[in-house]
């Protein structure tokens, strides 16, 4: 019960603290949006899931690299109250659920109202590590967002071409036996992650946005199973438009895999 009340409170808190000041929200739309959201939460406590799983927390499928990077960013996140003072933080971990409305309401379970079977695309596979394993951190000033992404075996795309590099017969046979094929991540899966990271970044800055344009250059393939960093930075905001650029690199930053720019447009309801 106390947990449920705490969730309702957090949900209300997050709705009321949404960064509307950064968008030109019509005052009547603001009041309407908040009233509808808060009313929905207050009238539906029986729908709250006691099992809301935050998918951005470490699980057994995470490799050493993923864990190390998680610890690195997590150690710079907001700390618990120590005495009277709250510790300062440089980054904030973005919780991630398999139903999108949970994002908007700080973990409150609301999506049954709409479609009971709907699941967030990147979090819809139960087996840990099989597909999109990732965690996002947003920087204090919200100009930057970083994602640690481990690409699982269900994201297989093209196969590598080691065969071209060595024509020795024994080696050729082993290649044919598939022992030496390198598997890379599917380009669509990379695009999905870029969209997810940049849209989350833009969502921290404003409300109700849609991806209008995603421009991607694939520079180097990403080996399946490897961990990469996805860095996004705010380029500019212009009226209802939010422009974000994004880079996918190896974890040490030495290899550039992909670069992209994304344009988000704030809903007319908010932008006027
Ligand atoms: C630590 C705390 C963190 C808290 C985090 C909080 C939340 C985190 C949550 C995360 C997010 C959760 C879930 C996210 C869910 C899904 C993620 C994936 C996102 C997507 O996957 S989303 C689906 C794909 N997406 C579409 O399905 C869009 C279809 N589309 C449309 O719905 C319209 O098309 C729309 C709305 C885009 C615009 O329509 P509209 O009528 O409102 O606006 P209009 O057309 O007038 O354009 C206004 C200005 O944008 C320019 N403009 C427009 N489009 C352009 C283009 N393509 N290229 C260049 N410029 C463009 C115009 O030129 C004009 O510019 P100007 O003002 O300068 O003239």
UniProtKB/TrEMBL annotation:
It comes from the Eukaryota. One of its GO terms (biological process) is apoptotic process. It is an enzyme of class 3 (hydrolase). Its main location: membrane. One of its GO terms (molecular function) is hydrolase activity. It is found in: Cell projection, Ruffle membrane; Cytoplasm; Mitochondrion inner membrane; Mitochondrion intermembrane space. It is a peripheral membrane protein. InterPro entries: HotDog_dom_sf (IPR029069), THEM4/THEM5_acyl-CoA_thioest (IPR052365), Thioestr_dom (IPR006683). PANTHER family: ACYL-COENZYME A THIOESTERASE THEM4. Belongs to the THEM4/THEM5 thioesterase family. This is Acyl-coenzyme A thioesterase THEM4. The gene is LOC114448008.
